[in-house]
Amino acid sequence: MDERDVYRAKEAVQSAMKKGPMRLALIIGAILVSFLFLHPWVQVGAGERGIVLNFGAVQDKVLNEGLHFRMPIMQTVSIMDVKVQKAETGAASASADLQDVSSAVALNYHVIPDKVNVVYQTIGVHFKERIVDPAIQEVMKAVSAKYSAEELITKRAAVSEAIRAALAERLMAYNIAVDAFSIISFSFSKVFTEAIESKQTAEQLALKAKRDLDRIKIEAEQTITAARAEAESLRLQRANISPDLIELRKIEANLKAIDKWNGILPQVTGAGAVPFIGVGEIQKR
User: Fold this and answer.
1) Domain end position, chosen among 139, 158, 188
2) The CATH number of the domain where 147 resides is what?
3) Residue 114's Cα: distance from chain center in Å?
4) Residue 191's pLDDT is what?
């Protein structure tokens, strides 16, 4: 090997050493760009679940909360909310006595977390409009038809529980759980509302009349009891009166008359004169 060959080899080594770090940097840079562009990870937030799709086909695996890796291009992940959601809707129905009933209700529900892939595959993400709202309408009609209009008001708690149980059974078939149900309001036709008000007024008046009658009876009984007590007292007093007691009362009356006398005898005598009461009787004694 001559001197020129040695020089060329030296230059080749130096050139390779210069190009090596640059190539490595380019390779690393390309990997990073590809990594960011392909986005091979997915983050599932709190109260959510991830549905894995391989080329659009729903998989059995459900991703829980946290960070997960996926196969770029092949796998995509769809996020579904499993927190408690609220549905408020109005429902029109008829009672057992054929009264029109308009009601406003509220339903709290959530998708069963382990079944989000089934819900996504069979219903999609618009399950409220497709399943929940129609179920509320149908159950309200079915339950309202079992109660009269008056019972819908007086047995509101029982009606609400019946609707909740029916909705829970119906929605569970679609992997949707019912958390709570409440009836916000019931409203009826104007004629029926006026009839209810008239009935309540009549009942209140009847109750007031009954209370007044009871009060009058009590007062009458009290009066009778007081009269009986007074009569018994007079009877006892009459039973205790004796000739000696009568004589004693006369003497007491005469003594009181003497105490009040001023010492002047009456100036007028005759048929119209006032006698000196009891003096003779006192003298006799």
Assistant:
1) 188
2) 3.30.479.30
3) 32
4) 73
